[in-house]
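User: For documentation purposes, I need each entry recorded in a consistent format: the amino acid sequence on its own, followed directly by the corresponding structure tokens. There are two entries in this batch. Please keep commentary to a minimum and don't merge the entries.

Assistant: Recorded as requested. Entry 1:
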Amino acid sequence: MTQAQETKQRDTNEEAIRFALFSAHEHDVRFIRLWFTDILGTLKGFAITIDELEGVLRTGASFDGASIEGLAREGESDMVAMPDPSTWQILPWRPRENSVARLFCDIRTVSGEPADTDNREVLRRVLRRAGEMSLTYYVAPELEYFHLRSSDDPRPYDSGGYFDQSSDNAGADLRRQTVLSLEEMGIPVKHSHHEVSDGQHEIDLRHTNALTMADSIITFKVVVKEIASQSGGYVTFMPRPFTQSNGSGMHTHMSLFKGDKNAFFDSDSPDNLSVTARQFMAGLIRHAPEITAITNQWVNSYKRLVPGVEAPVYANYTAGNQAGLVRIPAYRVDKEDSIRIEYRAPDSACNPYLAYAAILGAGLEGIENEYELAEPLTRDPAGMSASERQAHGVVQLPDSLDSALRIAGDSELLNKTLGPAVMQSFLRNKRLEWAEYSRTVTDYEISRYLKLL
């Protein structure tokens, strides 16, 4: 970063601090929640009072990082939560009197250096790598989830179907309230609708830079759950909570821009895809098995990545249909900004910071090494024989968390992209989860074997 850029950043930061202090006074804010996430993307944080706000905005707040999964290295404990003043927002579901605000924080060491285990810093590092290529990474996720009656009564909150617009649909009322709350917090929504399964909904966020979007996804999950809770309901982002239903994905539309020009667009190409776009897609496809442990990090994630439930199973791309891991959505030929790539593997329970870092890292690898992109498949690879898939260079995604972790553990790309400290912590946590799952007797085994054997 040049001296001029550093000066501009300091000026922007100071302006954001002044706005936060002004907003706190105007909205009678009494408490401020300092938010950050652990290695799994679980929201963590602590609260400060209004009297502490200005000091914390300028120097941060110390806390014990050793108790947060994956945040402190071995032998470390004290960490500093440094608020990002640009993320200041009032929580709309809290009372207006003595109101509550939130700030996302960057995690630093006590010496003031960015912690290499901080999720935001991991993503920021990959964004800087793209920036060195004069590229800005934009994303727009489609977030799916289930509204349930309660956590103790996991029946769907409604019985709507795909795109249903019934006026007596209780789930639609909650979805509408959620959208209004998101927009009140500065998170613009593009679409919202009922999904295929009973109680399943989707809200699509409008594209923005990846770091802002990762913060927005964390906020999104809090808002959806809070709105449901106020009505006595419950929301789950579990990748596939019901055997008889589709799972909940986080299909992500993405593009790279050079300045104000879409780097994925080329008017001279027959399909309007630039060389950069094709190389980026080739990187996604080649490295998809490696990054699946990051984009699909739970045991249950692999109950969604199966044939027949509108989720990808193979690493391939298509020009229009929904069968591919990577696809090119329909776009307006007179609007070059609309051409984009959709990556369909992630589920809405992933850690968005690590997921977007891994996805971008895979795409940049394709650009830097000039990967060749194969022709798009016109058939669903699930209907092809193994030899046909092999002839087309189509590989299967991992079919279990264990398989995904084995591939990720050998990945040079992930080690470079996420950093050794994050990878070691993530793999350790996930291997413990797989070991626990492997020795747990499930309801399936009881119903299948108890009377039979």
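Entry 2:
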Amino acid sequence: MRKLVIFIIVATLVFFVFAAPLFGFTVKGEETLNLTETENDDVYAMGNTINFSGEVNGDLVAAGGQLNINGTVTGDLIAAGGMIEIGGNIKDDIRVAGGTITIKGSVDDDVIMAGGQLVIEKGAKIGGDLAISGGSVIINGDIAGKITASAGEITIAGKAGNGVEIGGAGTLTIGSTAEINGDLSYSSESEAKIAEGATISGNVKFKEIPKPDKKSFAMPLGIFGTVLGATYIGSRVVSFLSMFIVGIIMLLAIPVIFKKFNNRMRTSFGFCVAGGAITLFGVPVAILILGLIGILLLITIVGAGLGILAFATSVVITTLYFVLIYTSTAFLSFLLGEVILAKSKLNMQKYGWKVLAYLIGLVIIMIVYAIPFLGGVAKFAGVLFGLGGLTMVLKDYIWNAAKRVEK
């Protein structure tokens, strides 16, 4: 088993070494990273705080706790973080996810964004389409293309050049300064509040989302009484119980990993977010490329053996990738529970109290994940943070192992 793990790590490293010439880019990382110069290359930036006021002639990929983007990017901007403010000039697309995201600059092409609180400020200009999803969405800027949105609360007071389509909204408000060129199509539990003065050149199409029937959650079972029989609730219970069982087994088997995870998240949260973003989005691309290389090698008789190895490696990496995503919830739950119990006089070195901390954290996380609209955003953030912490722990392990080999 150990030889197999070593082979996978070496094969992956070799793959990236040989693939590196195909992907020219610059990597920058510090606790507080200030980017003020011109870079004629794609830039990958990570840190607790990133301040960008320079120019990147290529793509900018940034991840951290707080991102302040005020420079010029001639390519795409891909970002993930806790608080993100984009006030510069992005010449191509934006793909961004985070807790609080504000766009107040100009974007020449499309924008895809997801998060907790999302704001397109007055004066911001988007030259293409806007696809946005989160807990709270406020659009005050000018969108040249189509707006596609879903959120708990949506307010539109800006301009939409090619209609608005709301896939699902708790509440929808169209402000008096809104100008919608085209149709307004939306689905919600209640009709939108459209202020006087709002301009909609097309038709207003409303699809009502039926409110949950409380009676449907109860199912009589004769002498056994009444139990909660909804499939949704049942799936949540099964998910919670399975995660709880997995977590308490892991706490017993690998407590040191939980300790290292908590230390990493406390001391270098920004790097954890960056590592999570890179792993979450980068590994699938690497797996795809590795699979394509395997296909090319299988075509040739000489490289058939290497092709099989490439496929086997991609399968193992894929499995590890999804295992890390699934277990990231357990590590994040224990961290949250330990933080809550930090001021108590409980001996957190004892397994029983660790289980209590894990249970408290898991209950809170599962409840938040179950909240409509916000739950999806919270789940994405949870995976990003948890996966990032695990990535940093894995990186530390490989780094220390390499040092031991050198000695």
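Summary note for entry 2:
Residues 24-211 form one domain.
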